[in-house]
Amino acid sequence: SFAISRDWNLDAIETPITVETGIAVQDRRLDQPYPEEIVAREAGMFNRLRLALIFDDENRDRYRRFGSYYEIGIQQGFEALGSDYESTIVEFEAINFHRLNRYDNFNSRFVFEVASDSPFDYPQYSIGGGSDVRGLESVDDRGDARWFANLELLFSYKKQPAVAHSFFIDVGNVYDDLEDVDFSDFHYTVGT
């Protein structure tokens, strides 16, 4: 894969928006058969062109992050360019780090992703594990559409500010495709 990005400065905002474009090619060859209990992925070629807009105003002080990060991207695979799949992937992510004081934060994250005609006939997304809905088994469910949100209160110990305690709520789900997305049907976890 190869990507090029350029900052786009606007008078209305202090932080530039990054415009990123890229190209990627994946060639998957399966030389040995999969065991029967594992669903085999298809071999083949998948290329994609990607365009993304990124607003990155995430900052760090000694102990905590603050600011925000937004990204929206689209990837397109083209059969005319040699891909075995005419596939579209759209992804959106929003992250906010809000400082309550020098040591404590309220953090939030929202992600929505959808893919059409997944490459290699294998679902693009999963739910579960430390990167989306904590407390669910990793790769518990798979599908071509996914959303999740994380809310987190992060409290530091004043005598040891590098050590923090987190209270969090994670919600989200993965669906077979975009038509199946139902925001009232979700998994959730609450933890510390």
Please give the share of residues in helix: under 10%
Q: Major beta sheet, specifics?
A: 10 strands, antiparallel
Individual helix count? 0
Class based on secondary structure composition and strand pairing: mainly beta
Range of strand content:
over 45%
What is the arithmetic mean of pLDDT? 87
**Low-confidence regions:** none
Order of helix and strand elements from N to C terminus:
EEEEEEEEEEEE
The N- to C-terminal Cα distance equals 38 Å
E-strand count: 12
Question: What gross morphology would you assign?
Answer: globular
Please give the radius of gyration in angstroms. Answer: 20 Å
Distinctive features:
192 residues; mainly beta; 10-stranded antiparallel sheet; two-stranded antiparallel sheet; 12 strands; globular
Give an account of the 3D structure.
With 192 residues, this protein is mainly β. Strands 1, 2, 3, 4, 5, 6, 7, 10, 11 and 12 form a ten-stranded antiparallel β-sheet that branches. A two-stranded antiparallel sheet has the order 8-9. A hairpin with a 2-residue loop joins strand 10 and strand 11. The model has no long low-confidence stretch (mean pLDDT 87). The protein is built from no helices and twelve strands. The chain is globular.
